[in-house]
Amino acid sequence: MKTVLLGVTGCIAAYKACEVVRGLQKAGVQVKVVMTGNATAFVGPLTFHALTGQPVATGFDWEGPAARVPDGSGGAGDPIPHITLGQSADLFLIAPCTADVMAKIAGGIADDLLTSTALAATAPLMIAPAMNVHMYENAATQENMAKLRQRGVAFIEADDGYLACGDVGRGRLADPDAIVAAALEALAAKQDLAGKRVLITAGPTIEPIDPARYISNRSSGKTGFALAAEAAERGGQVTLVTGPVALGDPDDVETVHVETAREMLQAVEERFDGADIAIFTAAVCDGRPEAFSPRKLKKGADDEALGRIELVSNPDILATMGARKRPGQVVVGFAAETEDLEANAAKKLSAKGADLIVANLVGEGRAFGTDTNEVLLVSSEGAEALPLMEKTRLAAVLLDRLAVL
Ligand code: C5P
Prior knowledge:
- The protein is an alpha/beta fold.
- It contains 15 helices and 22 strands.
- The chain is elongated.
- The two termini are 25 Å apart.
- Bound molecules: cytidine-5'-monophosphate (C5P).
- Cytidine-5'-monophosphate is lined by residues 201, 261, 280-282, 284, 314, 316-318, 333-335, 348.
């Protein structure tokens, strides 16, 4: 699902932002709202909170309770909301945007949460200005708009007409439908994987001990599922081979459910040769119980067997496929490490025949089961650290890299 971060600034047209929220939601887009203090004088944060079901960001924690939504869900507790917000969206849309906020963004000023978010955002920025005609035509405003355009900011032109102040001319916020249409066009999935076949492994594997018990791990499958959904949206023909997870099958993806490492290997072997890109996110169990007991082992009678479960190694699916890679195929592995991230990832890159290793630190609540991840991309060209971002955004950033390989 795409996410738009909607910035609302202090202007009489702020109420029209509610219609923008609705229009985007109708198109299946998730909307999060960040407001300036002035905007909250025109429309209450609670309105946006109720419309979006999301916390509304109105200020930094240290600005005190006034900076939060009345129900206390104004992002309280996040010490760096400007980073989190701007990096968790696919588009940062500011509608309406006052002359003042536009000037600040053009000048790199970040003196509140909204403008700090604009400065920190990795998502593309789109601005729908709204102001008095004389403010709009003022040379300073025009210069700021030109500067922002040059930097790649997209504009939704203000309309001509009667303005709230009684003047007539340009400055009226564009029609909410036009704003929604422009945002949707900007969000439209790139089709850069059209014609490409993408194979992805995800989730944990489970290795049975007896009919009731198994060995497994904490993998949620979220990264692999996000990659599969994003690759399909970009036109890829996607197969997802997954161990047991609590996630629904992604749309337009052939999803193959397996349990054990050996079943996963078999499903991958059958499909690997046809794939252009293979991404191994699965947390495959390194070992499995040597013996499977067809009857449930009993406390007491089977204490010895339960107390000493012998493990044998599972096949390394990535390494097996990496060794079989044909020219032109792109193979990506993941590495979850508790220490020496870069060195361990570099070792895995060559040992497993991968083109890229996506490495992250685990433990202390990081990565496993969470919605965010902070990774290091390690390839033969070196290492690149990506900032902390949502797994859905990480999927998009990763596929951006792979689509051009
Ligand atoms: O060796 P390690 O488990 O850290 O390697 C992680 C990478 O190798 C991941 O991409 C994972 O999906 C893959 N892997 C695999 N089969 C295994 C073990 C790991 O495909 N048995």
